[in-house]
Amino acid sequence: MTEETIIQETTPLVKYTLSPEQEKKEILRHYRALLGSLRPKLKKGDRELVRTAFEISVEAHKTMRRKSGEPYILHPLAVAMICVEEIGLGVRSTICALLHDTVEDTDVTLEEIQDEFGVEIAKIVDGLTKISSVMDTNTSLQAENFKKILLTLTDDPRVILIKLADRLHNMRTLDSMKKEKQLKISSETVWVYAPLAHRMGLYTIKTELEDLSMKYLETDAYKEIAKRLSETKRERTRYINEFIRPLKEKLEATGFNFEIYGRPKSIHSIWNKIKKKAVTFDEVYDLFAIRIILDAPPEKEKEQCWKVYSMITDEYNPSPERLRDWLSNPKSNGYEALHTTVMGPLGKWVEVQIRTKRMNEIAEKGLAAHYKYKEGSSDEDRFDKWFGQIREVLAQEDTDDSINFLNDFKTSFLAEEIYVYTPKGEVKMLPKGSTALDFAFSVHSEIGSHCIGAKVHHKLVPISHKLRSGDQIEIITSNKQKPTEDWLGIVVTAKAKAKIKDSLKEDKRKTAEDGKYILQRKLEGMGASYSNYNIDEVMSFYKLSSQLDLFYLIATKSLDLKELKDFNVLGDKLEPPKPKIVVTEVPTEYQKQYSKKDSELIIFGESSDKIMYTLAKCCNPIPGDAVFGFVSTGKGLIIHRTNCPNAAQLMANYGHRVVKTKWAKNKEISFLTGLKVVGVDDVGVVNKITNIISGELKINIAALTIESGDGLFEGTIKVFVHDKEELEELVERLRALQGLKVDRFDTDASKL
Ligand code: MN
Q1: pLDDT per residue as tens digits for the range 704-737
Q2: Most CB contacts within 10 A, which of 197, 246, 392, 583?
Q3: Which of 188, 497, 86, 524 lies closest to 94, judged by CA?
Q4: Is the domain defined by 671-751 classed in CATH 3.30.70.260?
Q5: Which residue among 55, 59, 104, 563 is the active-site one?
Q6: Residues 6 or more apart from 529 whose CB is under 8 A from it?
Q7: In angstroms, what is the span from residue 268 Cα to ligand 1's centroid?
Q8: Ligand 1 centre from 100 Cα, in Å?
Q9: 536 tagged catalytic
């Protein structure tokens, strides 16, 4: 019945001032606590193994300190503690968590670990060790590292669980890092780690990761929502108690063993709702959810959950669209529960979640708890199936492009899923956004390759038709059909993508045969031999990266080889013509700016600017916004807002190209930005708006459009402002007008 508080106050940094003796005591205290948590799981000989791992780790990290000043060993100890307490992992994982940074950062080698603990543990530690050498500056090191993690994931899921514990502890202690590190790490966290935690069924960890990331990426919004949540806490608790009281009485009368309480939603999810539905904090109806946890015997679980549902809906009226039955069809990450939204007192919608103790443990500890209950479970292979799918795709996937790989992985494996049916009633799970074509490939790659359309509930639809949960699909095929380039834009699942790419490559190879023949004749006609040496000369002359591309372009007549007449032939070897020298001017100031270290602060926005930069079109930053610079390949430095919709992806994938930037104070240049206003249509409202903008604040309007209908109007205003302060004042003044909602546009202002 208590309302758990999720507002994390940032603790002020205390300088680390312990004596070596006190430090030692502190380390031992943490170690003993870890052993204490692990005690029920310790078998004979385990205690010694954990002790050895601890000692190796202490010795290896003994000279290292964390950014906060504390001894480094406290980090592996904390990660191990998270593994045991919050994820429910056992002894082997604890040992790996203690050792997780040793191979990467110290002199300890994998061989030593293998000698001491065996192959199983050495393999996991290897999976936890980052790729350290940069192979190519164009491929993203972070993406490579994610990929490595995912590859090991299929061997042993514990790698990812320990990695998540590692990330969680780093996020909890992010305060002591530098600003740009905070942004980069937080972006990676929302981009990959939180969805992974979600996919593993670790809801509590997922939520904490999202909230912590938001604290650094959207500091203002985070603080504002946290403040509003704590201000409204008393009122909310009163409401929750009033809501719960009649339910509690009824539940007690049945003799059920239960717990009932209200729980605030995470700051991040409230923020998402505010953004997605374009509402204010006060208008978010579900700031909290009611949770009922039953202690039911396994054979009575479903029955009792539905009984509780029936009691709730006797008391409060349910919304028919908001019933979620994950009892009959658990989510693929193992989540089981019954959710309903009912009309509570004062006409407020309230979400109620009904689950048993076992389901609750799975919701909190995910995978590990799932394995604990695995015996006797009816769908024990849910995770195994998932891992199997990943394995299948990894086996086919081209290993060349890790960023594409990561994006594909995200859409196919980390997205929410839908459930659809085959004509025979077999359930298939697909990521949200899947099309009829994805479904066809999920049945069989031959069916996918020949798919020309589908019937959904007996109605004919094109292959690009987006599927919804509950659809029953029949695929229509034709022998004449084959995959084309456009199909890549239609599918979202990695399996379908890989199969289509394979088929396109095969086609290309066949076509390329003709090109091979044409080139051979041409070379021989010039008196040169058809040798790899000569083919490579021609390839590099046309700046192509593979012989296949060269043959294919020749075969499709996109390359007519007429430049070959400028070549000389020496013996049987081709000699390319002397290249004409083309010099591209690169401004020297620009070169200097970027050759400096990442941590260099770039100040821009002065009228006498020497730095080439452009303001990103996706988020239109203005002075005063929190921003970062992104070194693009063609367009120099691009300035994005840190809360730009694209920022998370850029920072997560190309962290090495992100530079810290700051606005210079400047009142000479003004910046184009856009506002969206919605309000009640009223005589003279346009007048009032323009009066405030150009009359009172003397801000230049670039464009103003108003559309009205149904008593409401919607308008977009493009204005030139000098900085964020000025914009904020304008927004404030407009909001003060009766019934007017004002929001800043995130999209390209020039397209408004
Ligand atoms: Mn670590």
Answers
A1: 887 777 777 788 888 888 788 888 888 888 888 7
A2: 197
A3: 86
A4: yes
A5: 104
A6: 523, 572, 573
A7: 25
A8: 6
A9: no
Residue 437 Cα, ligand 1 centroid: separation in angstroms?
Answer: 42
pLDDT 10s digits, 167-219? 999 999 999 888 888 888 898 888 888 988 887 888 889 999 999 999 999 89
Is residue 583 pLDDT above 80, yes or no? Answer: no
Cα 170 to ligand 1 centre (Å): 7
What CATH fold (topology level) applies to the domain 3-217? Hypothetical protein af1432 (1.10.3210)
80 C-alpha vs ligand 1 centroid, how far in Å? 10
Report for 49-53, 107-111, 126-130, 298-302: range of highest mean pLDDT: 49-53
Residue 502 annotated to the active site: no
Measure 168 CA to ligand 1 centroid, in angstroms.
10
CA pair distance 178, 599, nearest whole angstrom: 9
Q: What is the DSSP string of 170-185?
A: HHHTGGGS-HHHHHHH
Q: Contact, 231 vs 174, CB < 8 A?
A: no
The CATH code for residues 229-374 is: 3.30.460.10
Distance of alpha carbon 527 from alpha carbon 516, whole angstroms: 17
What integer is the mean pLDDT of 426-440? 88
pLDDT of residue 585: 38
Q: Which two tokens stand for residue 594?
A: 């970027």
- What local confidence, expressed as pLDDT, does residue 498 receive? 87
Instruction: Examine domains 3-217 and 229-374 and report if their fold is the same.
Output: no
Handedness of CA 259, 264, 266, 270 (dihedral sign): positive
pLDDT reported for residue 167: 94
Which residue of the set 3, 23, 85, 105 is catalytic?
Answer: 105
Average pLDDT over residues 396-420: 67
Closest CA to 205 of 368, 82, 99: 82
Residues near 560 by beta carbon (within 8 Å), at least 6 away in sequence: none
From the CA of 192, how far away is ligand 1's center (Å)?
17
Q: Domain residue spans in the chain?
A: 3-217, 229-374, 502-575, 596-663, 671-751
pLDDT band (50, 70, 90) for residue 596: very low
Tell me if residue 268 falls in helix, strand or coil: helix
